[in-house]
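Write out structure tokens for Mannose-P-dolichol utilization defect 1 protein homolog.
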Amino acid sequence: MTTITRNLPWFIKDLGVSIVGEECYTSLVEDLHVTDAKCLKYALSKGLGIGIVVGGSIMRLPQLFLIISARSARGLSLSSFSLETLAYSINTTYSFRHEFPFSTYGENFFLSLQNAIIVLLIIHYRPSLSFDHNKRRQHILFASLSMSLGILLLSAIPHWLLAFLQAATLPLAVSAKLPQIMQNARAKSTGQLSAFAVGAQVLGCLARLYTTAMEVGDWLVASAFAMALVLNGILGVQLWRYWGKGGIYDAEDYELAEQGGERGRPEKVSVYLGGGVGKVNSGVNGNGTGSSRPRSPTGPTRIRLGTPPQRMRKVD
């Protein structure tokens, strides 16, 4: 058998050496020393790392498709995804500038790109900007320029400051996930949050703790993955608990309009929020037109959103 493994084509050998190194390739492949615990652990770490990088390159795609197909980012926290993008970018830059193997951090590079797109989509589909295209374009342009400037700054800052920022990803990870966790708890729903993405992140964090211990040994990086594991686990529990529920949301960004009413009469209800004066148009006079009367909300107006197709109604 070793006669075959020692005479494999050059491109297979080069690929194997590039992954596990000359020593472990010779031991595991050419000599078939399957009891070499050190090389087995290292090969397992490399395999997991490559799998995580490949998975990270597509992890957020289901989330992107959910937003685009629904034409809505309902239930997704802008601050949460923005802070998460920053944390991924810091970790990617820190690992790259310390010349860690790409298999130990590559997924953060891909997640940074995908999260940046999600941030722009959340802004694009924000209800408060749906009727003001100029303002929406300004917000998207500002977000794009801010992210580009952030990348340039991370590439130029000194190593000691970058190490400080990497340590800051621990509280940053908490700050990134808490808005989403709190929004889910308040709404009793996870909205357009992707179960695939959350589940993949939980598994990825578990694997990353192992690969970091085997290949990097940097406690700053390991601590960030441990914190991310706990927070993603909480999101996973929320997905299980609120699965299929439409939820209740603070409607400060929503304008609601629903046709219907009792006895087949047309009825239009509009709720204008954000601290201003609310207006309710209801009822039909003899001419078939509605009468209106101003109303000032006594507290935060909340709406319940159903599962697709989404129906909106005021909750008392």
